[in-house]
Design goal:
The structure holds two protein chains of two kinds.
Chain A: H1 22-32, H2 48-71, H3 78-88, H4 93-98, H5 102-112, H6 117-126, H7 130-135
Chain B: H1 2-12, H2 14-40, H3 43-60, H4 70-93, H5 97-108, H6 118-128, H7 132-143, H8 148-155, H9 159-179
Helix pairs in contact in B: 1-2, 2-3, 2-4, 3-4, 4-5, 4-8, 5-6, 6-9, 7-9
The chains are: A mainly alpha, B mainly alpha.
């Protein structure tokens, strides 16, 4: 037995048989089983309508986030406002006074009553603006 | 190569596609049948696999880049379809691929589409003892008489490795046949 020689006339054949007329009928059977639809299949990511829908959702989402963020914007606390007025704002005491109403003045007066005389004296003695206050 | 390019162009043109595909079936059905039958062993399974192969070829013609010959590409599809068929049958039955093959060989004795000579059956049993790839190499070289370069294009294995694989396969089969 010599399996190395593949062109040997004594080569062992696989021994398979085929039904009669099998190959004659095969072409028609295969052609009948082929898909008939010639409509090209467009992947969803290539459809323009898909991208437009995605863009619309993103724009709506962005607008909603801006709207709700503006509505719930946190106001700065009193300390931050005070610091701003003292160090950042270009305002003098007359500007501030103009912005006060009678309620604000009453509140300020009440808060001044809580300050002790010693604290007032300390402030006057150590303050650099004493001359300014005496001249006003 | 130019003839094949022109033929592929006909296969891709809607007007000439059907006639060209009929020509393709006429040209390749017999060699592909033999190739698949060598793997599947019985006619009915081979018929199913062959039809699936041609349908797959038809559906993927537009993706064929022409980097290999049409023949090699179709053989590759046929090989994969046949091996997938066996894998699926094994999974469905809850047995190994080797057991599926063993069953198919056992059924050959009673198969009306098998010549039934002792030596042919013994040869099939000897081949079944080889690893899957070695079986393919042996069948493609010995039964189908493909050139090593053609087998190399189909299986994606170097010619050198194929020659070594074939040599080992023949030694194992000869030993089995002589001892059984």
């Amino acid at each position: 037995m010599n399996l190395s020689d593949t062109h040997n006339s004594n080569k062992i054949k696989p021994g398979f048989r085929v039904p009669e007329n099998y190959f004659e009928n095969l072409t028609d059977i295969i052609m009948a089983g082929l898909p008939v639809n010639d409509t090209p299949v467009v992947p969803i990511y290539k459809k323009q309508s898909t991208w437009m829908a995605i863009a619309a959702v993103l724009v709506i989402g962005l607008c909603m986030s801006i709207y709700f963020r503006t509505g719930t914007q946190q106001l700065p606390d009193d300390d931050s406002i005070e610091n701003y007025l003292v160090y950042q704002a270009n305002l003098n005491s007359y500007d501030i006074a103009e912005g006060l109403n009678s309620n604000d003045i009453a509140e300020l007066e009440a808060s001044l009553n809580t300050v002790s005389n010693d604290a007032i004296e300390d402030y006057i003695m150590n303050g650099n603006d004493l001359d300014n206050y005496l001249n006003e | 190569m130019q003839d094949e390019k022109a033929f592929i162009a006909k296969l891709l043109q809607p007007k000439t596609r059907d006639a060209a595909f009929r020509e393709l079936i006429a040209q390749y059905s017999r060699p592909l049948y033999s190739h698949i039958r060598n793997i599947a062993l019985n006619h009915d399974d081979t018929d199913d696999i062959l039809q699936n192969t041609f349908i797959k070829v038809f559906n993927n013609l537009k993706n064929f880049k022409g980097e290999s010959k049409l023949f090699s590409w179709m053989y590759r599809i046929a090989t994969n379809e046949a091996l997938t068929f066996i894998n699926q049958r094994a999974k469905k039955s809850g047995i190994s691929n080797e057991d599926v093959q063993k069953k198919a060989i056992d059924n050959l004795e009673a198969d009306i589409y098998f010549e039934g000579e002792d030596i042919q059956l013994k040869l099939q049993k000897g081949i079944a003892l080889l690893p899957e790839k070695q079986q393919l190499v042996f069948k493609m070289r010995y039964f189908e008489e493909l050139k090593y370069e053609e087998i190399s294009e189909i299986l994606g294995t170097s010619v050198g490795a194929l020659k070594a694989s074939y040599h080992i396969a023949t030694k194992k089969i000869e030993e089995y046949v002589l001892n059984n």
